[in-house]
Amino acid sequence: AQSVTQPDIHITVSEGASLELRCNYSYGATPYLFWYVQSPGQGLQLLLKYFSGDTLVQGIKGFEAEFKRSQSSFNLRKPSVHWSDAAEYFCAVGSVSNDYKLSFGAGTTVTVRA
Amino acid sequence: DTAVSQTPKYLVTQMGNDKSIKCEQNLGHDTMYWYKQDSKKFLKIMFSYNNKELIINETVPNRFSPKSPDKAHLNLHINSLELGDSAVYFCASSQRGGGGYTFGSGTRLTVV
């Protein structure tokens, strides 16, 4: 069965500082990996996705993520955080064999301090 | 022009009532989903339809019944509402095998 772990429940970062959110997945074959962001009271917006190819993936809003098969990780990074990046971030894994069903991690809450 | 729209946005109802949530997507996607987000923000899939055919039916009480009249619409009907049904319900759509989901803005259901 596929599953996702986001080890950090809550991260506080200063505006302008870098941000890294951790994501570890469990799946036997090559997974499809995603990062979503949810602002308060809003739906989920896709930041970026990895299907195959280049293991460093660029997304929207200046985010990037790196797929590391050896570590079963897909960590999300941003070099310089803006106050508007305060939100809930979800990592998700899907697969062909599982009908593309996405399994989500528990989420990481990001707080940005001035 | 909203890609995935859900109605209503808020729903407050009493225990035992029956309610429906509607979802429509204008992206031309062939697959639609219902997810439940609990108070701890954990997201769990409930149902998935591909071209009007049910393909994923997770362990969900029989009181929940999805209906897809066409591939652009997926509705969720809930009978005999219970306090534990209080959550945010998200509709999503995707092109099967083509990428991530596009989510609606959610329906916050409160059962009192």
Can you tell me the CATH architecture of chain B? Sandwich
Morphology of chain A: globular
| Helix content bin of chain A | under 10%
Q: At the first level of CATH, what is the class of chain A?
A: Mainly Beta
* Share of residues in helices of chain B: under 10%
DSSP summary: helix tally of chain B: 0
Characterize the structure shown.
The complex is a heterodimer of chains A (114) and B (112). Chain A is an all-beta fold and 114 residues long. Chain A has one domain (3-113): Immunoglobulins (Immunoglobulin-like, Sandwich), CATH 2.60.40. Chain A is built from no helices and twelve strands. In chain A, strands 2, 5, 6, 10, 11 and 12 form a six-stranded mixed beta sheet that branches. In chain A, strands 3-9-8-7 form a four-stranded antiparallel beta sheet, with no helix packed on it. In chain A, strand 5 and strand 6 (44-50) form a beta hairpin. Chain A is globular and about 45 Å long. Chain A starts with a strand and ends with a strand. The relative contact order of chain A is 0.34. Chain B has one domain (4-96, 105-111): Immunoglobulins (Immunoglobulin-like). In chain B, 0% of the residues lie in helices and 56% in strands. Chain B has strands at residues 4-7, 10-13, 19-25, 31-37, 43-50, 53-57, 64-70, 73-78, 87-94, 102-103, 107-111. In chain B, strands 2, 4, 5, 6, 9, 10 and 11 form a seven-stranded mixed beta sheet that branches. A four-stranded antiparallel beta sheet of chain B has the order 1-3-8-7, with no helix packed on it. In chain B, a hairpin with a 2-residue loop joins strand 7 and strand 8. The N and C termini of chain B lie far apart (33 Å). Chains A and B meet through strand 5, strand 6, strand 10 and strand 11 of A and strand 5, strand 9 and strand 10 of B.
List key phrases describing it.
heterodimer, A: 114 residues, mainly beta, Immunoglobulin-like, 6-stranded mixed beta sheet, 12 strands, globular, B: 112 residues, 4-stranded antiparallel beta sheet
